[in-house]
Amino acid sequence: MTLYIIDLAIIFLLGRIAFKSLPGEPTELLMEMHEYRIPHLRTVLSQTWFRLEEFIKIAFPLMILSSVIIKAIELSGLFGLLSALMSPVTVEWLGLRHEMGIALIFGILRKELTLIMLATILGTTNFGAVLTSLQMVIFSLITMLYIPCIATIAACVKEFGWKKAIFITVFEVLFAIFIGGIVFRILGYFGLP
After folding, report:
1. Are 66 and 84 in contact (CB under 8 A)?
2. 0.85 surpassed by pTM
């Protein structure tokens, strides 16, 4: 519930800022509503197969690749170094465990895979046993706010060019980290463990 409230507040605030700062007249959104019909079984099955095939082709290799990369970083001894380099942000500013920064970095490949990477790093899927409620909220909030995935960055490059795409990506990541740190302090002040 807290995440939804924060997300809606940010959307409202940024919407008001954009409304005030962007030139032009507001336009109404008109959409034609088609009649509701019961879908044909063939259409449902073909759409379901299309989505499943897309997941298998895109997400499954990324899950395996990211898990292999995380394990290689851990075995090569770079895991501790990367975690230590990121700890001023992850531990001090966000209140997360130092390992969680690695999951946030690799989450940029595909946002949905962040939990799988976190489970790989922490060595468990029982996050409640190794993380506090506050850490789970902050991690979820940052994941919710930062750039969705590599495909989004590629679409931004195609639409706006490299400079604007890099600016948008960096802005979204820094914005998510900034909001995560603020929320960590506010919720910590009110005693969320």
Report:
1. no
2. no
